[in-house]
Amino acid sequence: IEQNYGLEYGLSDADVVELASLVSAVDRQLTPAVDWFLWGEDSVFVKYTRKWCSASLSRLSAFYLPYKWRQRKVYLSRHSQLVQCLRHKSDAEIARELYGMAKRCLTAFSYILGKKTYFVGDRPTAIDAYVFSRLWPLLHYESQQGNVSWHSVGPSGNIDSAVQSASHPLISHVLQCPNLVAHFIRIQNEFFPKAAEHFRRGETSLGKARLISDAFVAHPVRDCLLFAGFVAGVFVAYAHSKGLIRILPA
């Protein structure tokens, strides 16, 4: 018996076309804005993105890999649009353009989802996974750095107060789409129940090891000075062993 385990199995041709267009909209309008938020915003990169990336890296790799990834992500965001050129604009102008497109995309997706459980059909498809993956870092950042208890946001929740106290305008707009937040929570609870622990403020799956990593990553200037001192010490020891320098007795 031939079996198809793809997410699009059993969809009609019309549903497949709709699915492809929605995925394309996420890639073109939402993903660049989320990438710019995570990598292009200095405060977000320092307080959040760099720490999470460095937590799984060695100390030496943590010196340069996050910055290399950041350069690549920012470059892709600058060159992500086909209908308008962003490469010659300032960072503030790029952020305004990308966030504006992302907000329009989120509003449209909220309207398309409506009161349905999933975007297309009666079960999760690729677009549900795409939207979930783009909302995850935004809502997780809010749970770690913001003051909004967005789990309570919903048709009966206090949306206005949540939007006003959100840590970033893009996150505020997400919270203005309570059905998208409810969709995110539903997907997480159904398919990734263990991931909910990441949304508890100050806690990660790395436990106490994360505290050690934070102590290292949070002080790049100190670590650079320590590294420079170590290199200087090695150089002096090598020069002394080769007779290039002499240490006179007191």
Structure description:
There is one protein chain. The chain has ten helices and no strands. It is an all-alpha fold. Helix 1 (13-40) packs across helix 2 (42-54) and helix 1 packs parallel to helix 5 (126-145). The longest helix has 28 residues, at 13-40. It is elongated and about 85 Å long. The model is unreliable at 1-5, 154-158 and 202-218 (pLDDT under 50).
Features:
250 residues, mainly alpha, 10 helices, single chain
SSE blueprint and pairings:
Layout (H helix, E strand, L loop, with lengths): L12 H28 L1 H13 L6 H18 L12 H23 L12 H20 L13 H7 L3 H7 L2 H14 L16 H10 L2 H22 L9
Helix pairs in contact: 1-2, 1-3, 1-4, 1-5, 2-3, 4-7, 5-8, 6-7
Short characterization:
This protein is mostly helical and 250 residues long. The protein is 65% helix and 0% strand. Belongs to the metaxin family.
Measured distance between first and last alpha carbons = 88 Å
Q: Estimate what percentage of residues fall within beta strands.
A: under 5%
Question: How many beta strands in the DSSP annotation?
Answer: 0
Query: Regions with pLDDT < 50 over 5+ consecutive residues?
Result: 1-5, 154-158, 202-218
Query: How many DSSP H or I helices?
Result: 10
Q: Quaternary arrangement of the chains shown?
A: single chain
Structural class: mainly alpha
Q: Give Rg in angstroms.
A: 23 Å
Q: How much is the average pLDDT?
A: 79
The helix/strand order is HHHHHHHHHH
The largest sheet is: none
**Principal-axis shape:** elongated
* Percentage of residues assigned to helices: 55-70%
